[in-house]
């Protein structure tokens, strides 16, 4: 049994196998209707709990559809509907759910809640986003880059904006997949020191470059995300906007990257804030391939977790 809790907690060979499996599964069902079952039905007889303590469009729909395509069933639960949100411990919730379902995907707040759930569950647990990381997203992003441009190893990736949960998983991926990552954002919104240390220890130290034009120069991939994440207090909104405005990804900034560079954003986006529509809908953008690849990457993650 394998949990998928974070990219830095997963063996690089397993990460590579997951990406390759995702690609193969995507190719195998090309052109078929979304609801068509995969031929091998690897999740036949399995039921998967999808728990959301925060809103979601992509994670919710892609996991649900992915399980159905593989022949399994889903239960979508929101934290507020569960006893978890009303005093039952995470450990007891993990023990009970493990008696009913074969796999648990959870989107929650603190990383420690995810780790506690995994510690006490006797079925695999998948991280569907915490305040600190978003590994499923970055697996889809690596898959998307490689689909368009070949191996990501050794390529230059630049992040513009908040050093948030999605960035932390990208930093973990830099270490595990071996690409060069530059962070460009204000010092007050610097990334998690542990994520930076992980990449450094893996021989891929993350470059911190405060000037966005310098940071993006020569990049193969430019990535950004919302300036205010779900766990951030709305009272910080104006301050964050003022600090992050110089890091907006617009056509002028993208012109500094390589001519064949890609642009990614995990979505949901606030158009004309962190990125302009001209970039999001422009020739470098692969944002909707990224969204689609959540489905394929997560199907491969679920198979890996269950060994099916
Ligand atoms: N990118 C992503 O995780 O989107 P949702 O919040 O809609 O799931
Ligand atoms: N950083 C964002 C990602 C949303 C998918 C958030 O946590 O709200």
Automatic annotation (TrEMBL):
GO MF: amino acid binding; ornithine carbamoyltransferase activity
Compartments where found: Cytoplasm
Annotated metabolic or biological route of this protein: Amino-acid biosynthesis; L-arginine biosynthesis; L-arginine from L-ornithine and carbamoyl phosphate: step 1/3
Catalytic activity: carbamoyl phosphate + L-ornithine = L-citrulline + phosphate + H(+)
Any one biological process term the GO annotation gives: L-arginine biosynthetic process via ornithine
EC id: 2.1.3.3
Domain Aspartate/ornithine carbamoyltransferase Asp/Orn-binding: 154-304
UniProt entry keywords in alphabetical sequence: Cytoplasm, Transferase
Cellular component, GO annotation: cytoplasm
Residue numbers binding L-ornithine: 165, 225, 229-230
Gene3D superfamilies: Aspartate/ornithine carbamoyltransferase
Domain Aspartate/ornithine carbamoyltransferase carbamoyl-P binding as annotated: residue spans: 3-147
HAMAP family: OTCase (MF_01109)
Xref: NCBIfam families: orni_carb_tr, PRK00779.1
Protein family per UniProt: Belongs to the aspartate/ornithine carbamoyltransferase superfamily. OTCase family.
Main function: Reversibly catalyzes the transfer of the carbamoyl group from carbamoyl phosphate (CP) to the N(epsilon) atom of ornithine (ORN) to produce L-citrulline.
Protein name (Swiss-Prot/TrEMBL): Ornithine carbamoyltransferase
Organism per entry: Silicimonas algicola
């Amino acid at each position: 049994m394998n949990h998928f809790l974070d990219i830095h907690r997963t063996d690089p060979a397993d990460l590579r196998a997951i990406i390759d499996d995702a690609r193969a599964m995507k190719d195998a069902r090309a052109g078929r209707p979304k609801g068509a079952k995969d031929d091998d039905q690897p999740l036949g007889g399995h039921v998967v709990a999808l728990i959301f303590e925060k809103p979601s469009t992509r994670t919710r729909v892609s996991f649900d559809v992915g399980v159905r395509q593989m022949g399994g069933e889903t239960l979508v639960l929101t934290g507020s509907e569960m006893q978890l949100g009303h005093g039952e411990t995470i450990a007891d919730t993990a023990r009970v759910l493990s008696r009913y379902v074969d796999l648990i995907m959870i989107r929650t707040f603190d990383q420690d809640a995810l780790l506690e759930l995994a510690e006490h569950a006797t079925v695999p647990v998948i991280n569907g986003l915490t305040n600190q990381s978003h590994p499923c997203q970055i697996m889809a992003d690596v898959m998307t880059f490689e689909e368009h441009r070949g191996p990501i190893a050794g390529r230059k990736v630049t992040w513009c904006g908040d050093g948030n949960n999605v960035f932390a998983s990208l930093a973990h991926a830099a270490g595990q997949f071996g690409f060069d990552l530059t962070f460009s954002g204000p010092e007050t919104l610097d990334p998690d020191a542990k994520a930076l240390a992980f990449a450094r220890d893996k021989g891929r130290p993350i470059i911190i470059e405060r000037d966005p034009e310098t940071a993006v120069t020569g990049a193969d991939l430019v990535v950004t995300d919302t300036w205010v994440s779900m766990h951030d207090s709305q009272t910080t909104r104006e301050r964050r906007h003022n600090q992050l405005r110089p890091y907006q990804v617009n056509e002028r900034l993208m012109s500094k990257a390589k001519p064949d560079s890609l642009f990614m954003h995990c979505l949901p986006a606030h158009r004309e804030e962190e990125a302009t529509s001209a970039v999001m809908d422009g020739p470098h953008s692969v944002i909707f391939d990224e969204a689609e690849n959540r489905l394929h990457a997560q199907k491969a993650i679920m198979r890996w977790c269950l060994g099916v």
